[in-house]
Amino acid sequence: xxxxxxxxxxxxxxxxxxxxxxxxxxxxxxxxxxxxxxxxxxxxxxxxxxxxxxxxxxxxxxxxxxxxxxxxxxxxxxxxxxxxxxxxxxxxxxxxxxxxxxxxxxxxxxxxxxxxxxxxxxxxxxx
Length: 127
Prior knowledge:
The protein is built from three helices and five strands. It is α+β, with helices and mostly antiparallel strands.
């Protein structure tokens, strides 16, 4: 039986609230789970201690039994210092899109034209 430590959604429409659970990977997201390990409330501010609550000892127990964490839960554990930070590589995320690149080029060209025009205006007033 493959165990996953993942989020199970609760809360009403547009008011999400998640339980961190250990569940069989074959069960539905909000379906049957083995044990509740914590909560996550994304509506709270990021610096709030109430935003993510975890039973770290039980999570470590399940991980020692072979449970795999989902990406989001792994990030919570990294932030808590339970597991070492995993190197992630998404090089295209930082690259601006086509429209942003065109805007940046146009802005640079406009700034260069303004810089060229400024010394000419200073020379005309100095004479």
